[in-house]
Specification:
By secondary structure, the protein is of the alpha+beta class. The protein has seven helices and eleven strands. The radius of gyration is 17 Å and the shape is globular. The two termini are about 15 Å apart. About 35% of the residues are buried.
């Protein structure tokens, strides 16, 4: 996805904050997203377009039914203590003085991983409705809904969501062939193709897209 951000969206490498695996502890989230953090320091008011991509584990807090991203040093059984609350992330992004903010989450919050194995000691399935605190600046693409998992596609060595996100960004989502990809076109492309391929893999996965900017252009090529 980093390569796509550089080549398709023409984002200079110096403007990309890239971390993987054990470099993504809980402190990294605060460093990047908090007030005065890495992002906040680089925002040009009403001019910067911010993109956030996360692929990894998510987990619910069963007691308060909140959703959390689980960093490398986190424990899904203690999501509220060791994770990063999704609503907090959305609030921090919405408070940036950016022109637009687009979030891609290849994660689910069902308490299972991509192989349908339970991550939580309390393995009873629950359904969490993530309350997306987005406003006119926020465009949010999530890999699945409800108790669904965010499936992998071993043959392609990607999550289903990430695979079709990248295909869509490179031009496949341009349904009317006008050399522009709107947020709505990308969201529809991802949802349609991920749902269909998940069915072929005997799974259910329905990506979600939340935005007030469906008709705005995201990519021109």
């Amino acid at each position: 996805i980093k390569a796509y951000f550089k080549t398709v969206l023409n984002i200079p490498e110096s403007q990309i904050y890239f971390k993987t695996d054990n470099d993504v502890g809980q402190a990294e989230f605060s460093k990047v997203f908090s007030k005065g953090g890495w992002l906040d320091k680089r925002i040009r008011k009403d001019k910067s377009n911010v993109l956030v991509y996360y692929a990894g584990h998510g987990a619910p807090d069963i007691k308060n039914k909140s959703a959390y991203l689980i960093p490398y040093d986190g424990d899904p059984n203690y999501a509220s203590q060791t994770g990063y609350e999704l609503e907090k992330l959305y609030d921090q992004l919405a408070n940036l003085n950016a022109k637009s903010i687009t979030v891609f989450l290849d994660a689910c919050f069902s308490g299972t991983n991509r192989e349908s194995e339970m991550l939580l000691a309390d393995a009873r399935p629950i359904t969490i409705k993530v309350d997306k605190s987005w406003n006119a600046k926020l465009n949010i693409f999530t890999a699945s809904s409800g108790r669904e998992i965010s499936s992998s596609w071993p043959e392609k060595k990607h999550g289903l969501f990430s695979y079709y996100l990248m295909k869509g960004m490179r031009g496949d989502a341009d349904t009317n062939k006008d050399k522009n990809i709107t947020y709505g076109e990308l969201g529809t492309y991802i949802k349609t193709n991920v749902s269909e391929m998940a069915g072929m893999l005997d799974r259910e996965q329905t990506p979600e897209f939340e935005s007030l900017n469906e008709n705005k252009i995201f990519i021109q090529y």
